[in-house]
Model the fold of this input.
Amino acid sequence: MNYNTYCVIMAGGIGNRFWPVSNHRCPKQFLDILHSGKSFIRQTYERISQIFPDNHIFIVTGKEYEEITQKQLPEIPVENILKEPYVRNTATCIAYAAYKIKDINPDAIMVIIPSDHFICNDYAYLQNLQEGMHFVSIHGGLLTIGITPTRAETEYGYIQVKSKDNSQKISAVKTFTEKPSAEIAQMFYDSDEFLWNAGIFIWCVKDIIEEFKTHMYDLHVLFTTASKLNTPAEPLFIQSVYGQCHNISIDVGIMEKSQHVYVLKGNFGWSDVGTWHAFHALCEKDEHNNVSNSGKVILNESNNCIVNTPPRKNVVIQGIDNLIIAEKDNYLMICNRKDEEKIKRFEKLFRKKQ
Amino acid sequence: MNYNTYCVIMAGGIGNRFWPVSNHRCPKQFLDILHSGKSFIRQTYERISQIFPDNHIFIVTGKEYEEITQKQLPEIPVENILKEPYVRNTATCIAYAAYKIKDINPDAIMVIIPSDHFICNDYAYLQNLQEGMHFVSIHGGLLTIGITPTRAETEYGYIQVKSKDNSQKISAVKTFTEKPSAEIAQMFYDSDEFLWNAGIFIWCVKDIIEEFKTHMYDLHVLFTTASKLNTPAEPLFIQSVYGQCHNISIDVGIMEKSQHVYVLKGNFGWSDVGTWHAFHALCEKDEHNNVSNSGKVILNESNNCIVNTPPRKNVVIQGIDNLIIAEKDNYLMICNRKDEEKIKRFEKLFRKKQ
Done:
């Protein structure tokens, strides 16, 4: 155990892609949509708590999710739950954690992980994190974890490695690319130079702060001017800082600009479970490629459907292909799978209507 | 008011075509699926009570629907609710009413009507019934009401008139045809000789009993041997009779065989509302030909759908064509409109599964 290592779990998602199963009251990270018996965030915590002590684990989440976070992760000290007053994307979220942790331990090494991803092999995952921490503690720089693509996925970001030497586990990064078109995704997949961006970051806290100073100086000023981090005035201070921050991802704000970016090839089996499509890919299917979460669902002459309904609901689906059928509480959504990207707008549409 | 006229409302439907909105606990005739403010049977009663006194109105329904019938039609004397122990189709149902009414009044004229049809023009309907009663009181015979087809419908039975003289309101019948194929329906529609069979019958009770004696002698024997009709032992007697009856419609058992069948051309605007398709035809549609029963349903880029969900349920439907979406209690059905005929099997499928 290295006493300088810290883990930050990003849990700021608002759950709109899996609406109505996931929603603003209980976003995906707090749910068990894969029916593993534990929510995503609980699984994430149990996984990383094997190598981080509880008081070195921080959660960054929306202010409104403090209670559910405490309830699902009672082991985490309450002061380690960083509450965001507004949704401000990953650059702000990571800056908050970085400046706070630097204040506690200037020699800290930070691992930043999403709260709602699926990891197949925990052991390989933890080994990769440790290799990454070891690397940055010696070489410095910003390390991200890349996943060898298994298909020409258009829903993920891609990382291009500088070296074509595939035997190297860690290499410098040439480019970052946001979600590509199908054609470009195919080129990436065929080229052997691209990895999926898993949204996992490892660095020394002093190095990321140098990068903020260089590439996002406004943000650096906001977090360091009359800082009240780690004092009783922290919530008010954060309220003010977040009010002035822009909505920028760490990829766009730092990773794409920095000269010291590395990628470690992860080999733990990964999915961001970011869409119903990804969910479908992970789940057990019937002989007609349907995924259903409940034994009370009867699918007749139907193919490629995704059904997620309350456990006691009796459902018959007849003669239908390529639908997502999701129900929770008093909401029912029936969506053509080709229109999946529109789901994230539905919750708002309803709030407006009511 | 003719003191010999009686009306029999057939309310034996088991509600499987509109499952789960209609079901064995509360079949279609007791529901208000058209949102008129009143159930079908209540509307039927209020319509015919303009020309029949309450004690001359009989309801034939399943034993299990006695309570709901009394609740929806409190004006009807309880002894006028004829309870069928088993589902035995219209020949048995009509025989039960006919032998019972003959016992009360051998000179009775009977009008037999379904409980769950849509009638557009009540005044014209009642006029047609009265014309029909007048006709049979003079000419005898079995009179049915036919509707001039407005399309080549394959879901209705057809009646072919003997005379091609379209000016006659009542004419002898040449043939009865059950639901035809699309091709034959088109020929019928084009020929001008065919009317839709609306399932409405008018005759003197003594004439229909003569016909039972001739064409369904077994049934005649069952109802006349040691009859306990209109006595306290009627339920036991009926239990025994129904136990021995076959499942035959009045069309097959009598109308197709009798030599004394007439048809009166109805002009009141009619639908049997027998399918979701017929329901769709009757209801107001949005600009994409969707029918929805609730303001809480949002239909995006969807066409030709039928939605019938609980009034407070929030529903989003995205990118979908030609579906029937129906929810009630703990049951949800999503069915391709081309598979509508399979709906009637779903309730049983579930009872088996549970």
